[in-house]
Amino acid sequence: MRDSHGLEVTAASQAAVDAFDATIMSYLAFANDIGPRLKDTMTLDPDFVLAHCFKGYLFHLMGAKSLAARAGKELALAQAHAAKVTSRERLHVKALESWCHFDLQGATNAWEAAARDHPLDVLALKMLHYTHFYMGNSHNLRNSVGRVWPAWHDKLPAYGYMLSMRAFGLEETGAYDEALSLATRAYELNPNDAWAVHAVAHVHEIRDQRDAGLAWLERCLTGGGKQWNNFRYHLVWHQALVLHEMERSDQALALYDHAMWDPASDEYLDLANDTSLLLRLEMAGVSVGDRWQVLAEKVKGRKDEHLLAFVDAHFMMPLAAVEPDHAEQLLSSIDAYMDTTDDTYASVSKAVARDLSAAVFAYQTGQFESCVETLEPVRSLVHLVGGSHAQRDVFAEMLIEAAVKAGGLTLARSLLYERVSARPRNFRAWNRLTYVLRQLGDVDGALSAARAAQDVRHKI
Ligand SMILES: [Fe+2]
Questions:
Q1: Where are the domains of the chain?
Q2: 225 C-alpha to center of ligand 1: Å?
Q3: Which CATH architecture does the domain made up of 1-135 adopt?
Q4: 390 C-alpha vs ligand 1 centroid, how far in Å?
Q5: Which of 199, 282, 392, 420 is buried most deeply by CB count within 10 Å?
Q6: How far is CA 323 from the centre of its chain?
Q7: Portion of the chain with pLDDT greater than 70, in percent
Q8: How far is the CA of 421 from the centre of ligand 1 (A)?
């Protein structure tokens, strides 16, 4: 059989291939009907190897160990029929096998091989977008799309989704104009493309175009997108981030309560959104009430999962805030894991992530000097934990705040000079710099920074 991009697929019927195609299109759009569509596919062909691979991927993508264990069953089912499938499909089986061993690099290599020979393999490309992102490799986030780009054109069904993937990779590597242009085009082609909405939001965020970012997200979140899955919460998180930047903290907290917080969700991205927004708000002096406690309840049973270093650094935030014993156990668990295991998580932990989690622990337990001593030497490696610039920015802000609170004012000044140099429209950075310069007795510098703060505040 052939799929909608002309790729050979081993399945019982064309109807099963078409149902799988529809499932992948839902996945690309972050739609909320991925599960039912995959179920339809499996009903049409219970031995569909690529569908079993995709189901296994989904279990891993949920970012919870209990679900990752279920991916093993899908791998076994895929392997049972792997002898009859194409070499491309076998690469997907190999990728799932690697992922089941928590070897993200191995999975990435298999998808790269599939994409090299089959540049229209949009599933492999989307998975590469995920692993390059969480392995902190923004160049490959961009280049994995670039390597197949000549094969894509606007008559192909997933072309718009490829545009938004390309846009996000460009944004994360600093090509903001091109990213904005491609993401806007992807959205015009398909307003259901949440990744296009997201890429535009990232361009506005990194450029500190607060009004434009807020207007864009309000338009996209209210105008459509009702069919999006939990990724919708991440878009709301971006919205809350803009409000926070505008010092509209009450509104950011209201968004958290009414449009982000999902008591039923255990998805890692939702928890990362929640924890990082609360930490940002708290660092800005906002009282977050008992919100840490409910988050701590959600994550304290997950201290030994160690699926993504990025996630553990976020799990540390609520635990260290209100359950320091559990937070210490998380640190010990990371130590034990990286000393006894040899997978992607362990290598990232050794390089930086263990220190990052320790720094979060120190900050949240009021040991600001320790936070600075732990984080400052490794801050240039934080990108290795993965995530976007916007997501990792919480750690940059935390180091600045820790330096201020520990009395390391010259370090705080240096970090803030760096920040306003990279982001000259960042109101909060200019504002904080004003405070630090004042504390250091630099009256002229403080006046100048205060003027810059007011200037960028009103220029938005
Ligand atoms: Fe984002």
A1: 1-135, 261-379, 408-458
A2: 16
A3: Alpha Horseshoe (1.25)
A4: 7
A5: 199
A6: 25
A7: 99
A8: 22
